[in-house]
Amino acid sequence: MDAADRPWAADRRILRLLRYWRDGRPGPGLLPGRQAIDPVALGPDLLPLMALVEPIDDGRRFRFRLVGTELARNAGLDLTGRHVDEVNPNKAYAAYISDLYSQCALMRGPLYSETRYRAPGGRTGLTRRLVCPLAADGRRIDMFIAVQTFELDAETGAAPTYTFAEDFQPGPTLPVLCD
Predict the structure, then answer these.
(1) Which contiguous run of DSSP H or E holds residue 63?
(2) Tens digit of pLDDT for each residue in 117-132?
(3) Which terminus of the chain has fewer CB atoms gathered within 10 Å of its CB, N or C?
(4) CATH code at 3-175
């Protein structure tokens, strides 16, 4: 398997969350729970890029429980306590993000995705994310842990935020197979 088949491996932060999630599984076929997540072990360079997201209404909606500072800065607002479908004025983008969590829940494993986004002023950004399911009992998904990284173009002007992007282009969305 080459790097094109595993784009998540190109970013050490995404790869570190993936390894941490895999190592936290309590046994074959079981998912780690929120109780297995130790913020100190994740490290200060990963925490600002992370989110804990809770499925609600039987997984029809998703609420941000905890959002790192860099994630909030790149969103253009603090997402903590807010629902995915309420914070994104671009309803197509909100549906895309909600679908990522739904896909992750159906797969019962990590999901990697990339998205390009453009601000009204024309600047562009690229975000890469890894979403991993969590289950307190090892089986029923009751939370997701995600890490999201950002790259901005070198242009001048207001930086784009992915929440208030004028346009977005989904890139690869790939299941991350686990041992």
Answers:
(1) strand 61-67
(2) 888 778 888 999 999 9
(3) C
(4) 3.30.450.20
